[in-house]
Amino acid sequence: MANLTVLQPDAPVLSTLNRDGTRRWLKPRVSQGVFLTARRAVAYVLILVFTLVPFLKISGRPVLLLDVVRREFTFFGVTFLPTDTILLALLMLAIFVGVFLVTALLGRAWCGWACPQTVYLEFVYRPIERLVEGTLGRGGRRAAAATAPRAILKALLYFVVSFYLANTFLAYFVPVEELLEWVRRSPIEHPGSFGLVLVTTGAMLFNFAYFREQTCVLACPYGRFQSVLLDPSSLIISYDAARGEPRAKGRRPKRDVRSDEQGRSAAPRAGLGDCVDCGLCVITCPTGIDIRDGLQMECVACAQCIDACDDVMRRVGLPTGLIRYTSQGALAGKPARVLRPRVLLYSAILAVLVTAMMLAARGAAQPEIKILRGPGLPYARMPDGMIANNLRLRIQNRTDQTLRFSVDAVDAPAGTQLDFDVERLEVAAGRAREEPLLIRIPPTALHHGKCDVQLRVSAGERYSRTISYRLLGPEHP
Q: Does the model's pTM come out above 0.90?
C-alpha cells in the first residue's frame, strides 16, 4: 500500500483546531480590567433576569411563555395563537431587522455581553473550573494535579448548574406552575416530563462542559452573518496595526507622548511599533484567536484582549488603546458616521414593522369569534316549512376576565329565529368554548338558495362584534 502524504495547512483552519486536526482545548486567562468588571456586572444581572422572567406576570399572564404544546405564545402578558400568523410574522421580521440594526451599529456586542452562551460559560462554568482546578484565571499556567475528587466535584457542580439552567430554559416553554409540579412530584409519576428535564440537562452539560466555545465558532451562524451585516463604520474590536507594527518583544523606554483621538501614539518610536508581542491578547481570548490578524468571525467582542493589552501598555509606559473598540473607518483615518444608508434603511424598515405590528396587535387581546358550519347537511327543511342552518359558535376569550356572551340577529329577514342552548354563554379568561347555533329563516328570504344575515355577538359594554354570515337553502323554495 502506497504511503499517503498528509499536507499541513499553511495557517490554522479554526481557532479551536490544531494543525493535525485534533481539538485545541482552550483555558483562557482572565484579564482584569474595566470591561471585564462591566461585563461581569451585566452578566449577573442577566442571570437574575433569565431566572425571574418566567415567574413575572402581567394581568395574571406570564411576561414571556412559548407554550408549544398548547400552541399559545405570550409576550408581555398578551397571548397569541397560531391563527395570528400576520402578527407572528411581523414580530419575527422585526427581531431580525433589529439584529441587523444593532449589528450595524455595535457589531457583536450581543455575543460578548448578553448572549446566554457567553454569560453562563464565562461567568459560571469556567469560574467553577478554575476554582476546582486551582488555576484561578491564570490561563496556561499549570493546574493542580488532576485527581478523582477534583474531577467528581467539578462534574457534580456542573450537573447542579446544568439542572438549574435546564429548568430555567424549560420555564420559557412550560408554565412555571406546571414545571414546579414536575420538580415536587416523584419522577415515577411523570416519566415523560422528567425525561425531558434530564435530556435538557444533558444538553446543557454537553454544551457548557464539552462543546463550549465551539458553539460560537462552529454552530452559531451569527459570526458568519457579520461579514454582510457590518460596514466600515460598525463598532468592532480591532488592533491598531499602524501603531503596533512592527512588533517586537521587550520593554519600551518611557517617552513623553500623547495619543491622538484614535488612541495612536503621536510620536511612535522609529522602526518599532508599540506591540511588545507578549501574546496576552491570544492567551486571554475565549475563542483562541489572535486579534492582531484582523477582523475574524470567531471574535465575540468580549473585550478581554483590550483589558489585557491596556494593562501591558500601562506597565511599559505606553498609551492604552492599542487594541480597542473602534471601526475599520476610524482605523483608516476616516471620520465616524453614525447615520449612514445602512442604518437609516434598517431603522426605517424596523419602524414600519413595529408600527404594523402594533396595529395588528390591537385586536390580539380581544375575544376571537368564529361562526362555523355544523356537521351534516348544509340546511334542512323544518316541519313548519322554515329553512334551518346548523352552525357552531366558537369563542376564544383572549382577555384577562371571564365574559358572558349573547347572540342577536341585527340584520336578518323578518321571521328569523335563533335557537341557542344558553341565554348567555360564559367563557373563562384565556379559554375557548364552542356551542351549537341553529338559525331558521322563512323560505321567501332565500335568493337563489342564499340569504345573508348579520349576527351580533356581544359581552355587555366591554365587547361587541357584528359578523356577516351567508345561510344556505334550496334553489327553488
A: no
